[in-house]
C-alpha cells in the first residue's frame, strides 16, 4: 500500500510512518508503555529496578484508538510473549497502523471498531489513548494541531466523553486499564472509574493505570 504524504516520527526508539490521517505520536504517550512494562515486572529504564510483576507477559492486550499503531506495535515488540490487538474507528488510520506493523515486523491483529463494538474477545488489559481534548480549553493552540485529524483529538463533555464511554463498556474480566488523559482530567476520570470498580494503581505523567476489582 502507498500512503500519500508520509512523514516519520520516533516513538520509543523506533521510526513510525505518520500521515494526515493519524495523530503524530507524542513523547508523553511513551509513559503508557513504561507503565505496562512495569505491570509485567519488566525493567523499562536503565537503573530502574523492575517492580514485582502483577501479570504474566503472555497476556492479551487491546489498544483502543490505535492511530499510527505506535502503542500496539511497541508493546508487540517489547512484550513478544503477549497477544496484541488494536482497533480504531478510522479506516485510513488503520491502513497506516498496518503499514507500520509490517515495516517494524510486529505481530498485531487489527480491527475496525467504534470503541469495543466489533471486539468479540475479552483482553486482559486495555490500553487507550483516545481523543481527550476539549475544543474550548483556553490554553489550546488550535493552529498547531490543524494538520492532525479532528477525530484523533477532540471529544465532547469537556474532553471526557470517549473515556467515560470506554469505562462504561469495559468488560468485567478485563483486569487492567491504562489510559492517557490530560492531568487536568485525571481526578474526574479516577472518580468515574471508581464507580465502575476500578482502583487506581498509579498515575505516571499523562498515564492512569487501573486494576479492576
Ligand atoms: C489521540 S489518537 C491516539 C493514536 C495513538 N494511539 C497514539 O497514542 O498516538 C486517538 C485515536 O482514536 C481514534 N478514535 C476516535 N474515536 C474512536 C472511537 N469511537 N472508537 C475507536 N477509535 C476512535 C482516532 O481515530 C485516533 O486514531
Describe this protein's structure:
This protein has 213 residues and is of the alpha/beta class. It has a single domain (27-212), classed as 3-Layer(aba) Sandwich (Rossmann fold), CATH 3.40.50. Helix content is 28%, strand content 22%. The protein contains seven helices and nine strands, in the order ββαβαβαββαααβαββ. It has a seven-stranded mixed sheet with strand order 5-4-3-6-7-9-8, sandwiched between helices. The relative contact order is 0.16. The structure holds S-adenosylmethionine. The site of S-adenosylmethionine has 24 residues, from helix 2, strand 4 and helix 4.
Specify the helix fraction band: 25-40%
Structural class: alpha/beta
- How many domains make up the coordinates? 1
Biggest sheet, strands in spatial order? 5-4-3-6-7-9-8
Low-confidence stretches: none
Mean pLDDT: 94
The CATH topology comes to: Rossmann fold
Q: How many β-strand stretches? A: 9
Number of helices: 7
End-to-end Cα distance? 43 Å
N-to-C order of helices and strands:
EEHEHEHEEHHHEHEE
User: Whole-number radius of gyration?
Assistant: 16 Å
Shape: globular
Just give the CATH class: Alpha Beta
* Percentage of β-strand residues: 15-25%
Q: What is the architecture at the second tier of CATH?
A: 3-Layer(aba) Sandwich
Largest sheet: 7 strands, mixed
What's the name of the CATH homologous superfamily?
Vaccinia Virus protein VP39
Bound molecules: S-adenosylmethionine
